[in-house]
Amino acid sequence: MALFPEKPIEYEPVNPRIYLGTAGWSYDDWDGVFYPEGLPPGQRLQHYAKRFRSVEIDSTFYGTPARKTVQHWYEKSPDGFVFSAKFPRSITHDARLVNCADETYRFIENMTELGEKLGPLLLQFPPSFSASAFGDLERYLHGLPDGLMYVIEVRHPSWLTDEFADLLKTWGVGLCLACDGPLSRFWRVTSRVVYIRFLGDHDAFDTFESVRRDRSEDLDWWVPRIHHITDHGGVVFAYVNNHYAGYSPDVVGLLEEKLRSRLANPENGE
């Protein structure tokens, strides 16, 4: 029996407002586990999209993708599929939002080749990026093109202020919520788009072909909160990294199962 059906399946989401997926899709360790053994790398996206309706593109963190690459992603994914993507580190980590307008617009222009499949664009900052750069962030947000979804991930506790939250609300920018790290489970929603990243320690596992850590308790904490957000009109994008438990597709599946169970039995849980 083939691992995947001959034709794409009709994916039934837990909730139209919930987009679940993994951080990236091109991992050799998934061959023979998530992907059929020997599947050419160029066909992985099509197979991934039979199981999940969204993905966080990790490769854009290392550089703006070519326009043809983005067009290829669009062509190889089904209708209704959504891509989220990280801004390049040259913007967030090297320039730290200063004097990088040209690169910003080039990145956004290329990513808009995804059309209706383009989801949130994530500005992920290093732990050393503190609120002393508040003015730089304010100016940068002011210059971003309208009509797109933006999300910010900060890792320095100095950002946890009402002033920062108000800035994000003013521009309709989402605050990335993380399950690990110095700001884990920080509970603040700043826009109708809520972005959750299930991360882990980058040196925790050396391979990613199986789940190596039980994360059930952590997922149980998030499930009622995800439903609370969607019940109040929000849209949730949640992505699991391989470093979180060792093999992200199974963790996404478990989260999906818990979300469905909560819908069927709302009296159970928080």
From TrEMBL:
Organism domain of life: Bacteria
Organism, scientific name: Microvenator marinus
Matching InterPro entries: DUF72, UPF0759_sf
SUPFAM superfamilies, per database record: TM1631-like
Annotated PANTHER family: DUF72 DOMAIN-CONTAINING PROTEIN (PTHR30348:SF4), UNCHARACTERIZED PROTEIN YECE (PTHR30348)
Protein's name in the database: DUF72 domain-containing protein
Signal peptide: none
